[in-house]
Design goal:
Helices cover 32% and strands 17% of the residues. It has helices at residues 13-21, 63-79, 95-106, 145-153, 193-204, 217-223, 238-244, 254-262, 266-275, 299-311, 346-358, 366-373, 385-388; strands at residues 2-7, 39-44, 50-55, 82-88, 110-116, 134-136, 175-179, 208-212, 230-233, 251-253, 283-287, 317-321, 335-338, 363-365.
């Protein structure tokens, strides 16, 4: 969940963030405009789970640079699940504050007012803000910080909670086999987030999990003594795993699980025929919404472009970005292949999908694309009956794809 702390310059936003975090994560100064780019702090907040707090530049920042800072603050505000609006309780409200509060409410953001610098009472024209959830905070003594955290946690039933990666497809006492390649692009000494989330969700459902590299899969599979209820693999080794497993073995990928968790699978499937209608010279955008260090053979910069040119259309322009395209850039895009979105919220992921669909831009997820070019559709989504039963798969018979 994203919790964005906004307000005017010198309203006490950074001090508030530091008190919530219980350490200095943001610069505090009496000088106006100390915060430039948004500062993020990740923490666990009881029943809300993992959250990211964003300290932002003052909404009244000035000058050309100030305008850019405000724009960045506005971008974070648009992505917020919860907004903490910080305002000096002693000063009269200004029109800019009113406008932002109206904007927050209009966009259905959960709102908490944090009154800072409290002395005897709240300024008369700000008292109407007490009709919203609010807290009076003394940043120096830290009074009100615990109450603020409690009020944030009270929103737990109002925020959209993401389902687990294997929700509805893994059940108690089942055996799940996870195939996790460890190559040059893998993070050092740890699994990637989709693998960790999936493993935890399996355990939460009182099921069992086996984890193996693709190089050891065949040996392990033969030694298990029973057929796993489901095999989940990294999409990059779909072709290797599919050759080892019997055809009847249920199979999907971490990326497909993430796409289902973050958004909807059906729009990706419905886009597939449109990808085979892409004309020469079209612009294909690969949208990768995280900041992992790209290595040789990277999935977004190397593998997907090569497979696209081999199986879909060789005569296209392919570019990759980590930022969602703006209104001007989007007009130049013919199709998008997007990652599983493990580092962003469901709200942000579905918003991206909505914008692309409004522009009639066909979209595929990494996992769906790699399943497609490896002839693993509809097999890779058979485990999702709510999706599998809705889609006409006769199109795949005419694709003439062979294993990559």
């Amino acid at each position: 969940l994203k919790i964005v702390v906004i307000g005017l310059r010198n309203s006490g936003k950074s001090f508030l963030i530091n008190n919530i975090a219980e350490k200095n994560v943001a610069i505090v100064s009496d000088l106006a405009g100390t915060t430039t780019d948004p500062v993020a702090h990740t923490m666990e907040l009881s029943d809300l789970g993992p959250v990211v707090f964003y300290d932002t530049a003052g909404l009244d920042d000035i000058g050309e640079i100030g305008k850019l800072r405000v724009e960045k603050s506005r971008e974070k505000l648009d992505l917020a699940d919860i907004v903490v609006f910080v305002t000096n309780s002693n000063k009269n409200i200004i029109e800019l504050e009113k406008n932002y509060i109206e904007y927050i409410l209009k966009n259905n953001k959960l709102l908490i007012i944090a009154f800072t610098f409290y002395q005897e009472e709240i300024a008369e024209d700000k008292k109407y803000l007490t009709s919203f959830p609010y807290v009076v905070v003394d940043n120096t003594s830290k009074k009100g910080i615990l109450e603020l955290k409690k009020k944030l946690i009270d929103f737990k039933d109002k925020v959209e909670q993401e389902a687990g990666p294997v929700e509805g497809i893994v059940f108690q006492n089942q055996l799940i086999l996870l195939v996790t390649p460890i190559d040059i692009s893998a993070p050092k000494r740890r699994l990637i987030l989709p693998q960790v989330e999936t493993l935890r969700d399996i355990l939460d459902k009182d099921a069992s999990a086996l984890v193996v590299k693709e190089t050891q899969l065949e040996k392990l599979y033969k030694s298990i003594g029973r057929e796993p209820d489901l095999v989940i693999t990294d999409s990059q080794v779909f072709h290797i795993v599919a050759k080892i497993l019997p055809q009847k073995q249920p199979l999907t990928s971490f990326s497909i699980l993430m796409a289902r968790k973050k958004g909807e699978l059906l729009p990706f499937l419905e886009s597939i025929p449109k990808f085979f209608q892409i004309k020469d010279g079209s612009h294909i955008l690969i949208l990768e919404l995280c900041n992992h260090h790209r290595q040789d053979g990277d999935i977004g910069t190397v593998k997907i472009p090569a497979l696209f040119r081999k199986f879909i259309n060789a005569n296209v322009k392919i570019s990759i970005t980590r930022e969602f395209p703006g209104s001007f850039e989007i007009k130049d895009i013919s199709a998008v292949i997007m990652c599983g979105g493990c580092m962003i919220t469901r709200k942000q992921y579905t918003q991206n999908m909505k914008i692309l669909m409004e522009h009639n831009i066909p979209i595929l997820n990494y996992g769906i694309f790699l399943a497609l070019v490896n002839n693993l559709l509809p097999r890779a989504i058979e485990v999702f009956p709510e999706i599998y039963e809705k889609f006409d798969y006769s199109f795949f018979k005419s694709c003439n794809l062979t294993n990559a």
